[in-house]
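Entry 12.
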Amino acid sequence: MQRQHLTPLADAMLNAYFATLGYSRWFTDIHGQPPSKMAKTQNLLSVVQSELNLDPRFELSDRYAEYGRVEVSDRRDGISYVLRSEAMLAIERQREALFDSNQYLASDTLLLVHRFHQNGLDLSIAAARKKAGKLRLQASGPAIFVGAWPFVAVTPPPTKGIGFDQGAEDAFGELGDIGDAGEAGES
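Predicted 3D structure (tokens):
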């Protein structure tokens, strides 16, 4: 897979990251402490869903939407992705090595594995599988690195009163990596 193929998805994720930073700052100003990692994660994924809903290239699946997960299909090539953080992928692999002996079915959907870091966003792709009768996808092999997108590559979206000056402070230092820890709605 070519890096430029994933650029619209990376842009949506970076925009969501900046919006989540604005949300985190607003929450801290109002409540005197930052929001929980779960709240930041849900905000990030909700904004990603909104960004992708506005892009005619993508079709957002409603199968996971209410649980805060993101499944999206690219209308140009028909490839479907489920968003998963690199941290969650590592946790699943450890759990699988210790406890799993179930039979799996291959999935046509790919896992789009993300990791936010000091300089921006890394995306990787992993083939997926699932347990019979279940919806939750797991990686069926290693995640293959596709590319990196720096924070400066994207202009932060307007935040309707929640300002974000990209040069003012270190976005990653303030917000950190946001994954999908504690993901709800496993089935």
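Annotation: Confidence is low (pLDDT under 50) at residues 159-168, 182-187. The longest helix spans residues 3-31.
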